[in-house]
Each structure stands twice: as C-alpha cells, then as structure tokens.
Amino acid sequence: MTNFEGFFEKVAKLPNSTVHYWQNDFDAARPTVLMVHGYRGEHHGMLLIADQLKLYFNIIIPDLPGFGKSSEFHGGPHGLDNYSDFLKTFIVHLKLPKKPMIIGHSFGTIVSSKFEMDYPQLTDKKLVLLSPIASRPLKKRTRRIANFFANKFLKVPDSWADKITRSNLVSDVISKKMTKTKNRHVRKMIKAEHRKYFSTFSSNKVMVESGMASYTFSVGEFAEYVNKKVLLIAGENDELARLDKVEALLKKFPHRPKLIIKKHAGHLIHYECPDSVAKDIRDFLL
Question: How far apart are CA 235 and CA 273, in angstroms?
C-alpha cells in the first residue's frame, strides 16, 4: 500500500526549512502537478491518487514543513502565511520548465487557496481542491476558547503531549469520525495508515500552530482572489467539509468551479474512492 513504486525521494534545502519530497520520472512533455497534503498528514496520504496519475503527469509531493521527514520552519510559526510562502519558495527552487498545477486536500486546500491568492503567477491555469474546507470549522466564540487551550497546550512538554496526540486512541477516533465508507477493508486500511503516518509531525509546537491555522481560516476567505479554473471534489457525508458549505463556496470564485460529489464518502476521499477521484482529476487537468 505504502510502497512508492515509480517515485523517488529528494531533498530541498530552503531558507526556512529542509524539505523532503517525492516525484516520479520527469518528462518535459507532460504537465506537472504539485500535491499538498492535509493537517497531520504527509506524502503517503496522496499515494493512491498519485499512483494513478503518474503516467500522465510529473508529480511532486512534499512533506509540508514540520510533517513527515521535513524539518520545522527555522523561523516563524507554522501558520498559513509561512506555508503559502513555503510553496512559493519550493516552486522557485524546483526551476520547473512549465508552471505546475496544484492539488490540495483538506488543510492543503486552505494552504493552496492562500498561495494562489498570494502568488498566482507561479502556477498554471487550473486548481484542484479535494475535501475543501469551505468555511471556518469553528464559530468565533468557539475559536477563542480553542485558541485559549491551544496556547496552554503549547507549553506542555513534548514528552507529555505525545502520550495524547500521538496515541492510537486519538488516531482511531479521528479515523472513525472522518471515514464514511461501509467497506470494512477500506476502513481497516485507513485505520492502519493513520496509525502509521498521522503522527509524524515533528513537535507539539508544529501540531498546535498548524492546527490553529486549520480552524482559523478556510478556502472561503481566499476564493474570490483565485482567478483559476477550479475543480472541487467533496464527500457526500463529509462532516468536516460539509456539502452545503461546499456548494455555497461555488459562488465565491470568479469562475464558477466544477463540483463533483462522491456518494457515501466522507472527508477521506483520497482513501475512500481514490480510483474515481484520480479519474476526475485526470479528466479535468488534461
């Protein structure tokens, strides 16, 4: 499942982070896509989709700074501004012959949208958002309460925090909440994947700071500035990126996006229905 056949690991030493990323054999004749994973994730989460796209695209999948094998930011918090700036610095570093197209999932849709607003000149004309966070997950009062406890948790030593945040119990609860497929084999696979790769953040600081960014912002704040053709793919039963909020998001983009709804799926469409998601992406981008 997690064997990255056809992909190889590379390292980019950037001013604010040392980033590990994976790519397939480069072919200048093919378009290039850069995949941005979600909160607490890393490159493995995009594998099932990337594997089906590798014959059609040059694929680049970084571990965002602070996750997987990439280092934390050397300076500044793990917030949205720094992640947007990271994508800019990373793309410039790659010196690609053609502008890439971005595919973001979950928190990666927020990062990608902010980046497209900040640096639209660096990417091609299309953008794909999987399980887009269409509106802020928490209301204003709840955010204040969450921020209060998050700032308290920042002071907890990693050795103590890890017993909670990296526990199988936390991973299993989150997996169960976000997974809606009835397929027992898929549910078992998601549980195993999350146990293995959902706690690879480098420190409590990274988890808390990026977590605060994930519930403070949404795609909705940046959509009106994203002057690209956009594909949204959403799970019918997604509780985190609710379908009614995603449908309302359509009106905020300058060019009305195409929306594809995955029946019986939740937030983890890259695991629950990767075959059809990959086909939708391929049809849209080519």
Answer: 9
Two tokens at 110?
Answer: 């927020």
Burial class of residue 197 in the structure, from the number of CB atoms within 10 Å of its CB (0-12 exposed, 13-18 middle, 19+ buried): buried
Assess contact for 70 and 228: CB atoms under 8 A. no
Please, what is the end-to-end C-alpha distance for the chain in angstroms?
26
Instruction: Supply the pTM of this predicted model.
Output: 0.93
Residue 222 has pLDDT above 80, yes or no: yes
> For residue 75, what are its two tokens?
């300076």
**Full set of structural domains in the chain with CATH:** 7-285 (3.40.50.1820)
104: amino acid identity, one letter: G
Per-residue pLDDT tens over the stretch 108-137:
999 999 999 999 999 999 999 999 999 987
3-class DSSP state of 65: coil
| Region class of 220: left (phi > 0), else alpha (psi between -120 and 50), else beta | alpha
Q: Is 91 exposed, middle or buried (0-12, 13-18, 19+ CB in 10 A)?
A: buried
Instruction: Please report which confidence band the pLDDT of residue 141 belongs to, taking 50, 70 and 90 as the band edges.
Output: confident
Using CA atoms, how far residue 85 sits from 5, 108, 200, 215, in Å, is 30, 14, 22, 19
DSSP E strands in the chain: the ranges are: 7-14, 17-24, 32-36, 58-62, 101-105, 126-130, 229-235, 258-262
Q: How far is CA 203 from CA 210, 224, 245, in A?
A: 11, 34, 32
> Nearest to residue 104, comparing CAs of 51, 64, 71, 52?
64
- Residue 204 to residue 215: CA distance in whole angstroms: 17
